[in-house]
Amino acid sequence: MISAQAVKELRDMTGAGMMDCKKALTEANGDMEKAVEVLRERGLAAAAKKSGRIAAEGVVATYVSEDKKSAAMVEFNCETDFVSANEAFSGLANEIAALVAKNEVSSIEDVKALTLGEATVQDAVTALIAKLGENMSLRRYVKIEAKDGVVASYIHMGGKIGVLVETASENATDEVANVARDVAMHVAALNPKYLDKTSVDAETIEKEKEIYRVQALNEGKPANIVEKMVLGRVQKFLKEVCLVEQQFVKNPDLTITGYLKEESKKLGSIAIKSFARFEKGEGIEKEEVDFAAEVAAQMKK
């Protein structure tokens, strides 16, 4: 039995019609990912959102060392946007990001065990929970060490999105860092999934090929030109999901590769070596609360 909630979730993810979503879920035996593929094969899904609903509150915080060689980013979650705007909450997130950048860690548990003042990071989180009266969670982190370039960061909307970008560059100047920050802003806006074509795994490519192949056959295209269409659509897909292939958000006349070439003429060779992007709460399901009903229920007690 396919629930109305599952149909709504699939519709929100793909933009397809309610009946089409129900049929796809039925065909996929309730498997959401498979249902998305069914809709895409039929040309009914405008896009497939892989990240899930973004519902949890909190902040993403970054830290970059003065020499721009070491950087870290953390996601620190709480229950409400009221607490996420609290200076003590955001301040702790910034302190944790700085600690990660300055210490050797290999897991989130290592981060929680780092010394902060006279206690640990986890102790500081526990104390803040007691102070602000809301549950909190240090969810994830990433650390980047730039050996042959610089790292730059960008924070969007006060911590809703955070990005780190590492360059491979001849120089470690402020100007090169500014280029990296421009790319970080682009990453925040367009959310690329991969650095370049070589970063895309074979399984993803094959899955996309199969989807486009079924699409083309469903469109009634002759079998002898289906493969050419598939290859063309795969190339378009790669341009959409690979950072260096995307049109630069600040100048759509250039791709990111083109932008880097232009800046390299002035600042010495610059390439993007890696990037990381966190969006607060991505993939976390948060219970929807009817506050009016909740207040009414409390008044009846």
Tags for this model:
301 residues; 3-stranded antiparallel β-sheet; Helicase, Ruva Protein, domain 3; alpha+beta; 2 domains; 12 helices; 48% helix; Tetrahydropterin Synthase, Chain A
Describe the fold and architecture.
Strands 1-2-5 form a 3-stranded antiparallel β-sheet. Strands 6-7-10 form a 3-stranded antiparallel β-sheet. Strands 3-4 form a two-stranded antiparallel ribbon. About 3% of the residues have low confidence. A hairpin with a 2-residue loop joins β3 and β4. The chain has 12 helices and 10 strands. It has 2 domains: 50 residues, Orthogonal Bundle (Helicase, Ruva Protein, domain 3), CATH 1.10.8; 162 residues, 2-Layer Sandwich (Tetrahydropterin Synthase, Chain A). It is an alpha+beta fold.
Give a nutshell description of this structure:
This protein is α+β, with helices and mostly antiparallel strands and 301 residues long. It has helices spanning 4-14, 18-27, 32-41, 81-84, 87-102, 108-113, 121-132, 174-190, 202-218, 223-241, 256-267, 291-300; strands spanning 57-64, 70-78, 115-116, 119-120, 136-145, 151-156, 161-169, 247-248, 251-255, 270-279.
- Net shape: flat
Q: Mean of residue pLDDT?
A: 89
Strand content: 15-25%
The count of DSSP E runs of length 2 or more, i.e. the number of strands, is 10
- Number of DSSP helical runs: 12
Query: What ranges have pLDDT less than 50 throughout 5 or more consecutive residues?
Result: 47-55
User: What's the domain count?
Assistant: 2
